[in-house]
Amino acid sequence: MIRAAGAIADGLMGMPLCSPAFVEEVIRPMLADAADRAGREQPVPITGMTICAVSENSTQARALAATQLAVFAAGASAAPLIAFHGFEAEVAGDPRGVRAGRHPGRGGRRLGPDARHAGRPRNTEGGMGFHGTPKEAWERFAATFEGVYDEPLLFTAGKGMPKGGFEESLLGVCEAFGM
After folding, report:
1. Burial 95-104, CB ≥16 within 10 A → b, else e
2. How far is the C-alpha of 161 from the C-alpha of 104, rounded, in Å?
3. Strand residue runs (E) in 114-158
4. How far is Cα 140 from Cα 128, in angstroms, rounded to an integer?
5. What's the pLDDT score for residue 126?
6. Is residue 154 within 8 Å of 52, Cβ to Cβ?
7. pTM of the model
8. I need a labelling partner for 97 at 20 to 30 A (CA). Which of 9, 57, 70, 115 fits?
9. Sign of the alpha-carbon dihedral angle for 130, 134, 140, 144
């Protein structure tokens, strides 16, 4: 898909687990190679969907971001990203069943706060997303993602969040990024 986008598309929308390193070391070279082979002169722009969780409680925001990482890591399309970041063992040893589809939003049991982290990629500071209070989230975004994408798309979701958590995160994103 990346090569096809480089050859013919007006742009590429990256999936949420794309870190700046993955974009620079894998995606941009593939896009450029395909664009060059197709005779295109302009670089193909990238819109990056980036996981973010914002809360007045930084620990809660980290847990929510980890839940979103787990949801996306469960998909087969995430395998190259998981391998790039060295998380194969964590995803393969998923004791709570995220890979089997047993997570909030897919008819499975709800995972409690302690279970959300077990056996899953959880390091949002590694560039697979960001979290924190509104101030921390802005600082983490700027330090990690500033200039990586032609258009950043901040992604916050309700899966695995406590009641009211999605609204709090969405309002926090708006506060942090002046929307």
Report:
1. ebbbbeeebb
2. 9
3. 130-132, 151-155
4. 11
5. 62
6. yes
7. 0.77
8. 57
9. positive
